[in-house]
Amino acid sequence: MTAVARAAGLLVLAIVLLAGVPAMIALTGRFDLYYTFTLISLLAIASAGVWVTFYIGRINIGQAAYALIGGYVSAILVSAYGVSFWLTVPIAGLFCAAASVLIGLPILRLRGVYFAMVTLVSTEVARLLALALPITGGAKGMVNLPLPGPVSVFGVTLIPDFTSLGNPRFAFYIVSVVLMFVVFIALYRLVHSRVGNLFLSLQQNEELASSIGINIAYLRVIAYAVSSFFGGVAGAMFAAISQSVYPSSFTVADSVNFMLNCFLGGLGYVLGPLVGTFVLRFGWDLLFEAQQYQLLIYSVVLIALMLVLPNGLLSLFGRGRRKAAR
Amino acid sequence: MEQVIVNGLYLGAQYALIALGLTLIFALMNVLNFAHGQMYVLGGFVTYTVYGQWHLPFVVALIASSVTLAVLGALIEKFLFRTVIRRSTREESTMLLAAAIAFLFDAVILLVFGEKQRGVPKILDGVLNTGSVIIPYDRILVGCLAVVFIIAFMLFMQFSRTGRAMRALAQDRVAAQLMGINVDRYSMIGFAVGALLAGLVGGLLVAITGINSGIGGPISIKAFMMVMIGGAGVVGGAIAGGFILGMLEAVGLSVLHAYGDITYLVIFASLMVFLSIRPNGLMGKPWG
Amino acid sequence: MEGILQAVNLTKRYGGLVAVNDVSFNVIEREILSVIGPNGAGKSTLFKLIASFVRPTSGKVVFQGERISGRAPHLVARIGVVRTFQEATIFKGMSVRDNVIIAHHLRSRANLFGFFLGTRTARADEADFARSADDILNFLGLSELRDEQASALPQGHLRALGIAIGLATNPKVLLLDEPFAGMNHDETMRAVEMVRGVRDRGVTVMLVEHDMPAVMRISDRIVVLNFGEKIAEGTPAEIQRDEKVIEAYLGVEDETIGV
After folding, report:
1. How far is C212 from chain A (nearest CA, A)?
2. CA–CA separation, B33 vs B101, rounded Å?
3. pLDDT, averaged in runs of 10, over chain B (288 residues)
4. Containing H/E element for C67?
5. Domain C31-40+71-90+153-220+228-257, CATH homologous superfamily name and number
6. What stretch of H or E contains A158?
7. Inter-chain contact A295–B287, Cβ cutoff 8 Å?
8. Domain boundaries, chain C
9. Chain centroid offset of residue B120 CA
10. What is the pTM of this model?
11. Element housing B49 (H / E)
């Protein structure tokens, strides 16, 4: 795809998401879909983080921990210190990145199932910490978080005060979609730059990478920090939307889901986590009509998809980023 | 003190059986069976049906659980995992399949058996009371049975032709193929045996603690933890991991339960530290 | 004569097994030094020790007067001692050209962030790497295969790529682990020329090899290991005459030690 075609494609997508979808929602009156799509955008951001860890060859089942931490960081800063919500989003991300550096240094040496299991455990650890630490309000969680305030630059209001909006859901939707755009553009750039190549070398042959002078410990930590940053950002946004955060806001099931989103979309494709999140989440919501058969149909379809497209849905469209053949 | 040890041993034996099944599957196919807990649950429900509802002897129920899970395991390996492994470029793709299978099990179990907690009549009445240790007879029986099965499994793996073939396969897939071992067949058998073990423990424990459809996930996580501690892919590791977790729980329940969630926090945090020092568990085979 | 690299009383123990036992030798700058010995003699372990992939139980490796043993492998690579592997010498999923380009990494002047953003320094680096990679590919006869997936290469080209990757790091000492393995006579001769060419570019080359005629042909000096110990060190002619060496290879056809 040429650069022009790519830019055009992005523009079309932006128009569809930012104008087309709202129009369709207004027409059909399905205003609940705003929440669904917002959620999908945020979950896609978290899944994008997991995808980055896959890119350096690690199985990450712990992203929910960072989403939870991000949510709490934002909630605490907003409610206890009156910080503007918009500022807390990058702060939450950076906090998670810092935490992941500390945790990552020892555990990134682990590989395969062992790394996966440690990350799985870390999700539980985050939940238990949320229950135990005094600052988080324990099991009650943090509720009644205020809606985001305005953002103005040089007197020009870029983002209005959410409390003044008649339909904050629409505003959250726009913000989440824009954020998702930024994240995936950054991800694309990352993968196609030298940094992406370096990550790929880690995934394919860590020993060789080390022997040609690549600082694998450093790179692994960077990848993990980027991953956790995305998780924290998603968590912070989620806290604002639900105006609350509990120890159970993000659980092990969520960690597993973020991972599954990546698998379903395709580990070899930058848009994999987005497609996977959309299909899994939207599919699950659609199946609500099936009531008690919801899980049954969901799992059967999932298995069928895996049998037909074991490399993810996007493998239908040809080879993505080259991956190691095993 | 002795009470704690006895409880720990009893729990440990059950857990070891579960861990053995999981580690066998991992050793043979490099697949982490996400559905292991659900297989346990299904085994429990089959025993519940055969023994609790149809009033057939407990032994028959156990056999039913084992056979059901073995057959299901074989089918799953042959038609699902084999296809995905063959066609996928990345080894980890099987994780999605395993998770989907776990969901499927959960769905079916919920639909067929409902979400209520189920129990069965006690298989043995009475309690052994030596003064320092109090333990019901049925727990002793189940604990002994578990140990018997563990030993039987180890003997099977060590001395039977199938067992030796599977061990060769676990050690080196390519070499095993060169020696004429039918990789497909023994992968299937291995998966079936792994599933069988999970179902067997489910059947054993339904007689003690009952069963409900929601514990599949938590059991899977416990199984993962055991394999983490002891090391994946190695029989000794699974047994060690099982008994260690059993002991930890027994100790934790009695000593630390006053402190609630901090217990598990400490256990988990220690686990993370432990794994950082010993990346492959106590005796596990390295990944990849 | 003090050379560019010295092994000083290197010993490596794995539990009860002694893989390398008190091995010392000197490597002269710009020579081609081969390490030979029967299977299990400890040659690969020795290479791992020299490139610092493994810590010595005792002893040290000195490079240009500085101790390098015990330091992180990627740092040792940056200092100038680079090792290519016996197996898995390449990045399977990348193109041949990308394999070589990425091996230039330790020569980069821009940092990660710069590469992400595409700063001028980063772009200059990329241009340099591309030029250098093409040059190396040309030198090793791989230019035609630049865009092929590395995993699709036949054996001989695979080894050449491994050498290309090693060269891209601009090493002072290059350790080649069995570069001629699995090659027929013609391929081996071409590979021998390649290795000579590498040396002529100013690189000191150390080889581990089993192919005796090739070793005798290409080496300036040879070190012989047996059961982890050094039993001989000298020119090919000296080694061929050495009794201890002949004894170590007893039971093996005469022609394999080039006699």
Report:
1. 27
2. 9
3. 83 90 88 91 92 88 92 93 85 84 92 86 81 83 90 90 86 81 88 93 88 86 84 82 85 65 72 76 62
4. strand C66-67
5. P-loop containing nucleotide triphosphate hydrolases (3.40.50.300)
6. strand A156-159
7. no
8. 31-40+71-90+153-220+228-257
9. 21
10. 0.85
11. none
